[in-house]
Every structure is written in structure tokens, then in C-alpha cells.
Amino acid sequence: MCILYVWAAKTACDCSGQVTAPAASPPASAPASVAVQKFRVTPHDLQILEGTDTLLRCEVSARAGKVQWTKDGFALGFSAVIPGYPRYSVLVDAAHGTYNLQIKNATLEDDAEYQCQVGPAAGNPAIRANAKLSIVAAPSSIYIDGYSRNAKVEVIERQNLTLQCITENANPAAEIVWYQGETPVSTSVPIVSVNQTSAKRFRTSSTLHLQPRSDDDYKEYSCQARHKALPPDVPMRAQVQLSVLYPPGPPFFEGYSQGENLRRGQQVQIACRSRGGNPPAQLVWYRNGEVLNSPQRTSGRLSENVYKFTANASDNGANLVCEAKNLLSNTPLRAELNLTVLYAPKDVFLGGATQAKVGDAVQLSCVTAPSNPPARINWSMNGRPLSNGTFKTTSSSDGGWVSSSNITLNIDSQSRTFIIVCHALNAELSQNVVGSHTVNVLYPPSAPLLTGYNNGDILISGSILKLQCSSAGGNPPPSLLWYKNDKRVNAASKVTDSKITSELSLLVNASDNNAIYKCEVQNAAIEIPLFATKTLGVHFPPETVKISVAPKNLVPGIRAKLICDSSSSNPPAKISWWKDGIPVEGLNLANRPGLWGGSVSTLEMHVNITQNLDGSIYTCQSHNEVLQRSVHETISLDILFPPKFDAAQITSFVGVEGAPMQVELHASGNPMSISYTWTKDGLPISNNALSGQRLISDGPRLNISRLSRNDAGIYVCEALNTQGTALLEIQVVVEYAPIITSVTEGQSFVSGEQAVLSCQIQARPLEAAHVRWSRPGYDFAMRTTSSFENNTAFLQIENVQRDDIGNFTCIVDNQRGAVATQQVLLVVQTAPEIDHSPSYTRYAARLGVRAQLVCRALASPQPSFIWRRHGKDLKMQRRNKFTSVDRQVDPLHFESALLLESTSADDYGQYECVVRNSMGQASTTVEFSKPSRPDAPLQLRVGNVSDTSVELLWTAGFDGGMQVYYRIRFKQQGDEKYKYLDAKVGQQNSTLENLKPGGTYYFSVMAHNEAGVSKFLPDIKLTLSKGSQPHSAEYTEKDELPNVMIIGITSAAMVLLVLNAALVAWFVIRRQNKSQGETEPSNDDAYSKDDNQSVYKLPITALQADVQKKTAASTYLVENVDIIQSTAYPPKYQESSMCTPPYPMCNPDFTRTLPNPKRHSQRNSATGLIEGMPMRAKDDHMLISNGLYIPSPSPASSLVIKGSYISSPSPAPPADGSYFNMSDKYMSYPPVTY
What we know:
The protein is mainly β. The protein has three helices and 96 strands. Strands 61, 64, 65, 68, 69, 71, 73 and 74 form an eight-stranded mixed sheet that branches. Strands 88, 89, 91, 92, 93 and 94 form a six-stranded antiparallel sheet that branches. It has a five-stranded mixed sheet with strand order 5-13-12-8-9, with no helix packed on it.
């Protein structure tokens, strides 16, 4: 910004190019005594903090000239709001001559020389007053270079350390003070430097040099910034803590002194400690040169490592060393000591004979475990001291001393047992250890006596035999053992009154025949045991029979030998053969010696092998006639033969397409391990269940997971074992649901002739009975005959007429799936018949857009279309006003679209569509007008109904040329007010939920667009079902008014319509004369707040506001216009506009309609139409001619609106004639190229 003022000039000029007139000169007749302008209050120098607000005062008495401020000589201008300086403003009170300069949120840029200037005027010279504004900025930060806040600084003792403290961005420069703890540093003088880093920003640096000692460890050094902008109670500081590294002190012990005696088992704790050192000392224990694992702890600068142990003999004389060191130690510091441990021997060990005979001399020895000091040994026998022992002490390799003593004893017959005791005493500890030794005197026992069996007796196998054996005397008591044929047999024995006895109980068996049982007695007094024996005789039957077959593998046609061997029997057993319970003769009976003195018997049998003998049972029996006991064995003949399928096996299988099928075959053979393979048309079928295929073979089973018609055919199953193979063919038949492959199409028939419709089918099974023809209400019996041939059904219709046109349904049902249906259109040649429904007779579009009128007709053969207006054919040329595009909708229906480029007022009116073919012609009138409010829906009906929900459906009426929305009203019987529900955009149905079961409701629907609303249809009364009770519905004319009133209101509305048409014509002519564009103003309508009687109104206030904001190309005055509205409208959507959700396309301004780049991104080069856009052009914005909308008459009260407004001009339409919001009503067929 630049402003130049010349105080003496007549005019002033600023950089914006505007000229400011000088101040008016006083009248010539002004008295000469007028006061001269001067300062009442002058600005003075200020010093403020950065970021605060300030005020430079300037007050002028008798001001005559203009007042402005300057900054460092730069003029800020006369305005109270200073351009380019948003934080500056001049607070003006001209009546009192106050012109104070206010600066908010001051920054260093505001640090300058300011001047209040009063310009000259007649008789008043210019005056000026200066003031210096100084901005004080506190330092933004303080830090010690190279260290974070509260960092720990490591330094070796007596090495130099430099700390540099820096403050940034202060004005003026800050002062830095160093502290040790909370005491200012006085031992060293810091070096301070100040540098300017930017405009009015200073950086202060203070460097402190230190040489720390060990006492400085853990000391804190900090630097503090001092500045006038800093509050004294909130200091700005940066701080570090010193960590001075130095070696530890020598280690020392606590808890044990050199030479102190310890006892074995005593709990000992010896602490090794070292004071000082950073880092703390590392203490390590050594025992006899080996490192000990012991935890260390540190408290402050004291390190401690406690060695805990339980004293034992191995610790006696042990050398303990403790070393202390840290990173600064050149060599470890050491302390050491030797342990002394006293202990008694843990045990004594006696040796010598434990048994002796009378008269023997026995030598015994006693040796102690290590002891410190040595132990003394004493002897005693049976409580009496002995003194003839020897004594010796030796040093132990494990430490301490070992004591030993020997003594000799003579054995006499006075006692059976001698007990000798050895005593080892450690006198220093007063501990005595004792050991004992026993010597037994030996005597032999008497010979054993064996009873319970007499030699020569015969025992029966399975009987019980008890043998007794006894012996008297002997020391030590003898042991008694049993033997069978020199093999030890376990039996209990007992000693009573120097006598030992034992009884052996036997369950006699075959192995006891000729067995020798022996009783043996022995003790230490004899070298050869004493014994007695018995030999048993036993009769026993055979235990097992074994049958063997030769050869091993039996096949039909050979002669096999069956051999029966009986186990040993005494006396010999008799053998016999049996087949299926019948005795048969055997051959070659023989006996030979067997086990346990018995005999083994053998008998043979010969058999001619056939397949029928497979599984035959042969039994061999062995019988002991003396004991009347027998045993037998059975064998089943295993005859090997190849597989064979069952003769009754089913070979034809039927399934339905899509269903699973499993085929299972049965084959027998020996061996039964049979492998199966399946093939179809010579190709193998997979047996991998994980392959994912539909056809899987699983042994004798064929699994088809989902039948296909291609699976039908012949399958071969091959069964294989080691003896041969067998083949079996099966047939799979697949039945499937019908499919209609083709019907009669593209064929028309002449009236009066026979018509033949065909329907070709694929199905299995398929017969004439499976096919029928259907058409509701059609007399098939009198008019038609049907036939079936080569999978094709035919329907012959005699003497076809115009009324026969329509669809016949071909229905096929073979009970194998879904019923197949397809419609066959019967086309009879007929003259054109035009569709006169509102969708094809009324069209609307706004001015300037591309419009489309569609004429639809039923005809055969294909007709031609002619468009006319005012009785003349329209010229159809590509670059002309009108073009037409014809297309065939289906075999009977044809359409012609008349396209109007850039719709003008002259294009509105009636058009004639003429349709011709060889059978005749027809014509209709198509009405084309400006957009208007929609017609009411044509029909309201009920769809699906449940206990709590209702589906409502309706048929759309004329949409007025814009997007139509539908609103449903409903209430339960007995309620006073209706409830409302908006249907989804583009849908002509809606479902109401959460209704009361069994309740009676009234339903209705209305249509509305941006131009207005239709009335509601008559209510439908519906009673919902409840439980098994069905619902019921009826129509009511509740809202209808009397016919007389309707006729009267309609007549009045028609008069208003004629008047409005005259006004519209006058407006159009005037606008065309001025060649101005036309706009369609917004009809920003709303509903009243009254639920029972709401009024659709034009917002007068909005129109008047629009007049003040816009300048129109033409002005139209509309006065005293009565607008008749319906009383049946729902409550309003919002206060001032219908443009609310769910109507996102609604635009209340109606001043602009933009093309949609997504919908109009592609243009059909042949027709000029946009791909995906319906041919029927309709603007979805409300079009009100010249700002006035007159709705169609309806029975209601009237509202008279008086006023005028200026409509805003419409923008030019897009070049391609497309618009963003187009009605989707005409999308029933895709926009194809004609």
C-alpha cells in the first residue's frame, strides 16, 4: 500500500486512483480569532511485551486538518481501518479530537518510530508528534548445547568439561547466570557472547569451563535466563547433572576374621565391601582360585557382595579372595583370608568276619571318617571294654585326619552271637561316633523228612497233591527249598522252636508224570545241602488237537489231505473225523512217544476239492477212554475261486438330473479282497474322492454327486481278485426337467385364416400328456386343436381374428423338476391402434430445452408414422427444428419420437400423430405444454399384507414434465390426524410396517413435483389380519365434495385460466420483441402448519427480496391473481420450501440447470441423443411462465396473492440440449439408436 499526501495542495491522491477533495475552507466572513489546532495529548514512548495490545494516544484541540499516523515515516492513511495492517486501527472520536492508534497482538515488526500528523488547513499549519514503540520479546528457549534437559553428563575425574548455555530470539539480549545446585557459580567466570540472529532478535551464549573432582559426582549445574519479559516467579532454566568417573576404594571384609574357628554345619555370611567409585565397583569372590557366583548390590557409592555358605570339612583351610574394580581401575584391588573349620568324623567303618565256628580267631578293624582334630578309638564287646586293640592316625587327602584300630577275638561255645562296638571321640568338639559289628556262631541242621505221597501211586491230572517237608536244629536257622526235576519251586516255610517246616500244594497236570520232587535243607554250618525226593505217576488226557491241510491253497479239481495230530496223552488217545456233525472214516492211524511220558496219535483223511466245499466244516476229536476226557478242533475249507456277480443283480438305474445317484453292485469270490474298476465308453472313472469330480468310483459303488443328462449310457464294472476277473454292464438313464428351446416368432397371420403356434422342447421323459397350452379366458375347446411330434408341441387356431392377438403360454411339466413355461405371441395383421394413455398424449418441457414427444401404436404389419401440426406435415430434417426417430418395441408395438430442438413458446400446443399400414390408419392428438404440477395417481391398490405391514401400489398419472414424488397418508380408525410417509424416488410402491394387528386403517396417495401437488386419491379402508382372521379392504369417497361445489369451483378456475392465458400471451410477445432470454423463477412453496387444512403458497417475501438483488432483462407486473389450492395437502415439509430430502434434485433458486457430466458424457453420433438419456425431454425444475403459476381447478378454498416481482433471466441452455435433472419416467425401454 502506498499513500501520498501533499498538505498544501488543493487535492489529495492515494494509490487506489481515487481523488479526495481537500477540507472545505472556512467562510470568508469567519472571524480572525478562531483557535489554531494543537495537540491536547501527544503520544509518548512505550515499551511493551510481545503479543500484548497497546494504544498510542493522540488528541487534537481545534482540529482543522486531517489526521493520520506514520510508522518510520510511512503514512498509514486517514482511514480508521488501515489497509495492509489488519492489527492496526485508529480509534476516532472526531467530536473530541481523539485519534488514538491501537495495535493488537504486538510483534517485533511493530518496534518503530510512530508519528501523529495533523494536516494543514487555512490558518492552521501542520503539526506532528513522535513516539517510540519498543517491543520487548522474551527468549524463546534456553538450552545447554549438546545436552538434553536434565541430561546426565559423564566426565572423568580432573578432566576439562565445557558447558555452553544458549538463549534464543530475545529482544533485548538476555542475561545468563550459572548455578551449582541453588548456589550461583563463583569459582569460574563464564565467557559470554551476544549475536543478532535476525531483525531485533538476539542470541546469548555463556560458556562455563570446569575440572570436576570426585566430590562433584551427582552435582547439578544449571543456567538461568534473566530478562525483563520473564516473570521472576517462573524462571527459564536448563540443567544437567554431572557423573564424575573415578576408581573405587580397596575392598574389606565383615562377618569373619582371620584365624576364627568355624564348626561344620555353621551358617556363615562374609561381606566384601568397597566404598566410592563411579561407576560402582564390581566385586568378585574367588575360592581357592575359582570364581564364586554371588549377587552384588550397590547403595549410593557403597558396593557390597555377600558370600553365604554352610561350613563343611572341605572349607577347612580354604582361601577366599575378593577383588574390586571398575572401568577406571588399572589393576583390581584385592583382600583375602583363609578359613578354619572344626568337625568330628561323620562315620566309623568296621570290617571282619560275620560268622565263625567255635574255636576260631576272628580279626576286626575300625576306621574313622576324616576329623579335625583327630578322633580317639575305643573297643567294647557285649558291653565290656576291650584293651588289646592297636591305634594309628594318618592325614586325609580331603583334609583332616583318619584314625584306625585293629583287634582279635577268640570264639567259644558260651554264646550263639557276639556284638563288638567301636567308639570314635573328637575331644575338641566333644562328639562321639559309634559303630557295631555282629559275629554269629554256626551249628548244622538235621536231615529233612518228606511226606504226602507214596511211590507207585497213580495220580489223575487235575487233582490236588500236598507234600510236607521238615528239619530240626541248626544255627543260623536253615533254609528249606523245593525243586521239581532240579528246577526251583516256590513254597512258604516257617520256623517254630528251632524246627523248620514247609508244605507244597500241587494241581497235578501232565508235566508231573514221572517228575521228581526234592526237599533241600542248608545253612552256613554245612557245605553240602541235606535233601529228600519223591517220583510221581500221573494219567492225563490230550490237551490240543491240530489239523493241517496239504496243499495249503485249495482250488477246485485237486485231492487234498487233512491230517489230525493229537497232543500227548497217558494212556494213548483215540482219534475220529467228523464232517458237518457226521462221522467220516479216517486213514493211517499211528501212535508215537510224546511229552511227559505219554503218546502222540495221528489220523489222516482225503477230500476231492470242489467250489461247493468252500466253507465246509471238518472236525477232528481226540478221546482218552480211561479218563473219559476229549478235545477237538474244527477247520473250515477255504476254496479259492474268481469273482462272480449275483445273478439277481439289477442292471438298469434311473435318476433325475441334478439329483445324486449311487449304483452298488455285489460280487462274491475267494479271496474276498476284490478290486473294482469302472469305465464308460472305454474311459476309466476316477476313484479319487478328493478330485472334485462328479463321477467317483468307490469299490463296487459308483457315486454321481449331481446327475447330468450327459451321464446317461452304458457303464462297465470289472471285479478282480487273484483267481480271475468278472465283467458286468449296467445302464444309467437320466431324466431331466423340460426346457423350451424355441417358439414361433416373427410370424403374423391373416385374419380369418388358420394360425399354427409351435413350442420345441427338450425333456426326459417327454410325451404329449406333459404339454398343455394356456391363455386366461380363452375358449381352447372350440377354437383350437393341439398336437405333438418330434419333441415339438403345436397349437392350431382356426379363423384367427383381431381379438385373438395376445400371448399363449406353452406349459411343460414332466414331474422331473421346475415347470417350463414360455409365452408365444400370436400376431394377427390389423390396422394401427394408438395408445391414448396420459403417458403418450401429454408432454411438457421448459423453454430452450430439447423436447421429445412419443407416439405409440399397436399394428401389424409394421406401420409408418407421420407428424402434423396445424394440419400440415412437419418437415423432418437433421438440421431442422423437428426430427423423428421410429423404432419397434416388440412384434406388435411401434413408436415414433418427435424431437423438438430448443423449445420456444411457439412450440407449445397440439400435434397430430398419424399411423398407417396396409390394414388401415389411425391418428391421435398429442398435447405439448409448459411444465405443471402432476396429476393424481390413476389407481391405488393393495399388494402383500401381513399382520403388521401393508404394501401399497399405484399407477402414475401425468408427471407435469418434471420428477414426481409420492407421499402416502394413513391413519388408524379412530385417530384424528393422518400420518405421512414419502415413497422412495422413482418407485410407485411402498411398504408400511409396524402396524397394529387386526387394526383398521385408511390409506391414500398423492403426487407432487416442484410446480405443485395433486390431490389425494380416495381412501382405501383396510382391516389387517390377526392370527387366522384374514384381512379385508374397501374403497371410500371420504374426501370428495358435492358435485355442485366442484362444478362451481371448476367454472371459476376456468375463467382464471383464460385470463392467465391472455397475460402469458402478452408477456411472450413483449419478450420476443426485446429478444431477451426467459427465466423461470422459483416457486419456493411451502405447506402451512395446520395439519387439517394446509395451503400451497407462493413466498411473497422471498420474491420481494429477489427484486432487490437482481436486475431483470424484462419486468412483468402481476396483480390481483387468485390462486386456487387444494385443502387436502399434507403438512409442510419445512418452513419456506419444498426443497428438502429426500428430493436432492430440488433447486429452490431455479436460476440454473447444469449438464451432468456422468449422464451426458457420451453422445450418439447417429441421432444426436445422449447415450443413456430418455428421448422424452422433461425439465425437472419447475417452470412458471413469467413468474406466475395457475394450477388446475380443485375443490378447495382460494388464496389471493397480490404483489409483483421481477423474474431473473434464465441462462442459455447447454450446446447439446442436455440437462442434469431429467425425468426417469420414460426409461421403460433403453435409449437405442433408431
